[in-house]
Design a protein that fits this description.
Two copies of one chain form a homodimer.
Chain A: H1 2-19, H2 22-25, H3 36-53, H4 63-70, H5 82-101, H6 105-108, H7 117-122, H8 128-146
Chain lengths: 149, 149
């Protein structure tokens, strides 16, 4: 059910991206707030960062984090084009999806990579499945904003 | 983990409500979009409707559904005041929370009340826990919008 909800919100994101023009994405979601393209890049950067967090491998596009996570919108940093971002999302999702499908129920309950074995022994909810729960809600949060475009 | 995420987003909602003025809530989240008070009422109406959906009892404020779910914002229907909505949220959350705490792991995997026993036998994911997963993401979605106020 947790994975199905992740897939659902991720599909909502993909559907949104195919319904919106590049020009719309360059606009702010509300006056003075983040632009659509920043939020799109932010969601892709967060998905990419799930790969190491879940122990699935290295980030595929490590440069995204600096532009779309560490720094805010309108930082002056060069952003990829919408077309490049869409390609990167496809690549990240394919990689994530193949690992998600081959993760066993027991492995979902193992620690994620940002918690130490010591801390995990007393906080067993800090596992890989919980990362999916959290990141799904994070995506829903920003989808609620993107839809305003 | 699913319940903890529900509690987290619900607490984000409560914290948001205590940080915002009534005047801010009367504004639109973006030009031409829903007002804050409509989204607040909508989230409370959805939480109230979780009571019968989860088999926890009747809705406490059945009139909310007409104003905040069936009808869109600016329908001309009379809305409760912000103070009334905050009281209703407190009441709904207390009722939901007491039932959530006394629901056993096995009961979470039983059907919710909007699926028939026949359909549930072939679709066992349509259970009470899945309602929480779905409604948590729904809340995150609208919190992403409310924060724009």
């Amino acid at each position: 059910m947790v994975i199905a909800e992740w897939d659902k919100q991720n599909n909502n994101f993909i559907r949104f991206l195919s319904s919106v023009t590049d020009e719309q994405l360059l606009k702010e979601i509300a006056p003075g707030k983040n632009t659509g393209i920043y939020l799109v890049g932010h969601l892709i950067a967060i998905s990419d960062a799930m790969l190491p967090l879940l122990g699935f491998g290295e980030k595929l596009f490590p440069d995204l984090g600096n532009v779309f996570i560490t720094n805010p919108d309108k930082s002056g940093l060069q952003m990829p084009s919408v077309a490049e971002l869409k390609e990167q999302l496809k690549t990240v999702n394919a990689e994530l999806s193949s690992h998600i499908q081959s993760t066993s129920p027991e492995d979902w309950l193992k620690r994620h990579m940002a918690v130490s074995p010591e801390d995990f022994s007393s906080e067993p909810h800090r596992n890989k499945l919980n990362v999916i729960i959290n990141r799904t809600n994070h995506m829903s949060y920003h989808l609620g904003q993107l839809i305003l475009l």
